[in-house]
Write a structure and sequence with these properties.
Helices cover 2% and strands 24% of the residues. It is mainly β. It has a domain at 260-388: Sandwich (Jelly Rolls). Strands 1, 2, 3, 4, 5, 6, 7, 8, 9, 10 and 11 form an 11-stranded antiparallel β-sheet that branches.
């Protein structure tokens, strides 16, 4: 602080300034006093409104486009080579000579640029927030000799900024002596903690978002990854049939009481296998006395059979709740009733067998009583189903 300022502060009258004495040697500089806390930063004033954009000047007239030169003669196209077989590409025939390019017409005069509109008035700058009060300055210690500049010490963590201490009174300035040689810079004192940051001013409104740039071309699609191995096939459903045969056409036996093999209703069975079999039969006959009979043959087996259908006695049900099969290869023929009009009738049979040998499970049918022109028919749609149980 200057001496005249000290005089004013002390209320003294300033006298005539004496002649400047010889500059004495510089005194030893005392250590630097701790820096006082920085005052809180004042709030940032609101941003002023942006002035309206000036009017854009009218676009100048576009000059007349010059005449386009006539197009040069196009050379005849060379012969295209024959297309090779698919796979290797066939040789492309030589390209014919390109005709000379016609003269380009001179460019038309460019119209003069229109007048640029005057720039709009710039909005007034918003009021700057008041600066926070500065704390009092701490007393300044004597300045030490400047020594060699040491390595920079570790910067302490930023702390809250304290209030600035009062400035101490500056002592009287002695006559300036001769400037001594510059001393070694002393090591740098510890940096004081940083004061608290003032509250952030109001954020100005967001500017207009620029138009979206051109979307880049889509990159090449990567090659398809290898197809994973097929998972194991799930277990067969509970209600699935291992054999399901539906008869596609009528089959007729005429004047024959010996059981005949059906041409479709059969399947192969292995030795020591257990099978459950169902027959859903549609049949008919052309004689009320001739009737219809049927049965099954199979490899030697044990098991049982049950069935229900029309009896040979009119309007009576032929029913068996179960007949045992013991080391047999067939069941006893079952007689079913018919009428004289070949009217379709129905029959249902369940069979369960445990085979002791391999062979064919075969449905058979015939006349119940043979005579000339008597027919017994196994009708289309009759169905044989079987499930292997073990």
């Amino acid at each position: 602080m200057a001496s005249w300022l000290l005089s004013i502060l002390a209320g003294a009258t300033e006298g005539t300034t004496g002649a400047k004495g010889a500059t004495g040697s510089q005194g030893v500089a005392g250590p630097a006093g701790a820096q006082g806390p920085t005052g809180a930063k004042g709030a940032t004033g609101a941003k002023g409104s942006t002035g309206a954009k000036g009017v854009t000047g009218a676009k100048g007239t576009t000059g007349v486009k010059g005449a386009t030169g006539s197009k040069g003669v196009t050379g005849s196209k060379g012969v295209t080579g024959s297309k090779g077989a698919t796979g290797a590409k066939g040789t492309t025939g030589a390209k014919g000579t390109t005709g000379a390019k016609g003269t380009t017409g001179s460019k038309g005069v460019t119209g003069s640029k229109g007048v640029t509109g005057s720039k709009g008035v710039t909005g007034a700058k918003g009021v700057t927030g008041a600066q926070g009060v500065a704390g009092p300055a701490g007393a300044q210690g004597p300045t030490g000799l400047k020594g060699v500049t040491g390595s920079k010490g570790v910067t302490g963590g930023k702390g809250a900024t304290g209030t600035q201490g009062p400035a101490g009174a500056k002592g009287p300035t002695g006559t300036k002596g001769a400037t001594g040689a510059k001393g070694v810079t002393g090591t740098k004192g510890t940096t004081g903690s940083k004061g608290a940051t003032g509250s952030k001013g109001t954020t100005g409104s967001k500017g207009v978002t620029g138009s979206k740039g051109v979307t880049g071309a889509k990159g090449a699609t990567g090659s398809k990854g290898a197809t994973g191995a097929k998972g194991a096939t799930g277990a067969q459903g509970v209600n699935a049939w291992d054999v399901l045969v539906k008869k596609s056409a009528d089959q007729v036996v005429t004047n024959n009481a010996t059981l005949q093999n059906d041409s479709q209703l059969s399947f192969a069975a292995g030795a020591n296998e257990t099978w459950y079999v169902e027959l859903l039969l549609s049949y008919s006959g052309n004689n009320v006395n001739g009737d219809y009979k049927c049965g099954f043959t199979f490899p030697s087996s044990t098991g049982w059979v049950s069935y229900v259908g029309d009896s040979t006695t009119a309007d009576v049900i032929n029913l068996s709740t179960g007949i045992r099969i013991s080391a047999a290869a067939s069941i006893t023929a079952i007689a079913l009733g018919t009428d004289g009009a070949d009217t379709p009738r129905t029959f249902s049979l369940q069979l369960m067998i445990r085979t002791t040998a391999a062979g064919t499970v075969q449905f058979q049918f015939a006349n119940n009583a043979a005579a000339a022109s008597r027919t017994s028919t196994t009708r289309a749609g009759s169905t044989l189903m079987a499930r292997k149980l073990g």
